[in-house]
Amino acid sequence: MRLHYTPIPTEIANSYRSGQPDAFSLTPERNAASSGRGTPCRHCLKQVPKGEPYLILAHRPFKTLNPYSETGPIFLCANDCPAAAPDFPAAILTAPHHIVRGYSADERIIYGTGAVVNSFDIPLYAADLFARPDVAFIHIRSASNNCYLCRIDRV
To answer: What is the pLDDT of residues 29-64, one digit of tens each?
Structure first.
């Protein structure tokens, strides 16, 4: 089994860049310049480059609404950036730990799957979660702020 680290889709990133409303029906906020740290783009899965503009917006990384459809702030390169390759996104996993948890096919948290995991142990933990037939996909979130970083799919 291979793990595929999935960024937000290009069409969604482009809609936010064009000023379409975010998950709270607000226009994404444009910031003039990133410091090059602490602004991980959810599309290229890299830090927004120093001096480059970026967006802050509310994103809900789910197709459906249910009590588990978490919505929260994310950063996005304001200018076009390439979608991330499916490889482990080390460039944005700079904190020592992240929250990793499994979701069912109907987009609900599967109790007992959530854990604070050492960042470089995420592939091992994800493989363990995907050994469970009820885990359809996994989210990686900030351990300090709970912000969504990316999704993991099995291939």
So the answer is: 999 999 988 999 999 999 999 999 999 999 999 999
Average pLDDT (63-90) is 94
Tokens of 15: 């809609």
Six token digits for residue 28:
């994404």
Structure tokens, 52: 């480059």
Spatial distance between the Cα atoms of 66 and 64, rounded to a whole number of angstroms: 7
Residue bearing tokens 């029906």 = 25
Instruction: Give the helix/strand (H/E) hosting 10.
Output: helix 10-17
Contacts for 127-130: CB closer than 8 Å, 24+ residues apart: 127/1, 127/3, 129/100, 129/102, 130/1, 130/3, 130/102, 130/154
pTM, entire model: 0.93
Q: Do 74 and 59 touch, CB atoms closer than 8 A?
A: yes
- Whole-angstrom Cα distance, residue 49 to residue 111? 37
Which pLDDT score is estimated for 153? 97
Give the C-alpha separation, 36 to 51, whole Å. 7
